Amino acid sequence: MPDKPLVVVLGASGFLGSAVTAALAGRPVRLRAVARREVAAPAGCTADFESRQADLTEPGALAEAVEGAAAVFPFAAQIRGASGWRIAEDDVVAERTNVGVIRELAEVLHGDPVPVVVFPGSNTQVGKHVEGRLDGTEEDRPEGTYDRQKLTAERILKEATAAGRLRGISLRLPPVFGPPAATADDRGVVSTMIRRALAGEPLTMWHDGTIRRDLLNVSDAARAFVAAMDHADALAGRHYLIGTGKSEPLGDVFRLIAGAVARHTGTDPVPVVSVPPPPHADGTDFRSVDVDPSAFAAATGWQCETPLAAAIEQTAVALATG
């Protein structure tokens, strides 16, 4: 990259976008944080920082936001639909945000050297698969609307990379959690259950607790995105699985959460119970996901630094005192 390259974070006020913005703030770069709201410079920021407010679905807004960028992190996304967590097939706003923005980005982004795009994918994009650890070589059969949109966006970036228009890298993430950002809460399963435990409510599972998930602390996830930018030439044109490399039964995770909250509040741990699944549950909710992040680790030297129990403890304290 040239001296003082322009690095653009789209969706910089979101949970993961704000963490990546903070991770970039100590770099010798021009850092542009783009969001619908004003974004303050992270604490200790030494980068040349600019906050830009924009609705990226408006005509021309994206092109202006990324003009001159050497690297772009597109975190703007529509995760929840009008009826709740799941996105409906006909949700045009979600399609425009999750796919249309990436398609436009591949069209408008240009520069010398070829710009880098590090895309946040999901390890559930693969859909139904045979038992065993995922390593990124599996055939993708996404089942839900959100996962299909993520896969479509990822393929757009791969095609643009093959055409030489950009250097696209997709990091397929597990559930990411951690202390809330100043501009966004973590609304994933770990923080949701911590909030329930703080309210004295039981922690409910849609299964018997043996379903496993690889859960990643947000600071480790942010470092992975920066590492991908730093190794763009070696990584471009592919997707990589990110995670701790060790999945945990959700029953054990929920009991860790109950214990962490109990230590902070001085009360008994709330119960962890199984309940019937809701109507909007789908197949991915009832299959374990084990990921092998070794390909990305070998290419970049990145590794998870925060043990699960410590990350849960940190998050519980932050939510209890925030």
UniProtKB/TrEMBL annotation:
Q: Name one Pfam family in it.
A: Epimerase
Give the NAD-dependent epimerase/dehydratase domain ranges: 7-243
Concerning SUPFAM superfamilies, the annotation shows:
NAD(P)-binding Rossmann-fold domains (SSF51735)
Matching PANTHER family: BIFUNCTIONAL POLYMYXIN RESISTANCE PROTEIN ARNA, UDP-D-APIOSE_UDP-D-XYLOSE SYNTHASE 2
Q: State the name under which the record lists this protein.
A: dTDP-4-keto-6-deoxyhexose 4-ketoreductase
Q: Which organism is it from?
A: Saccharopolyspora shandongensis
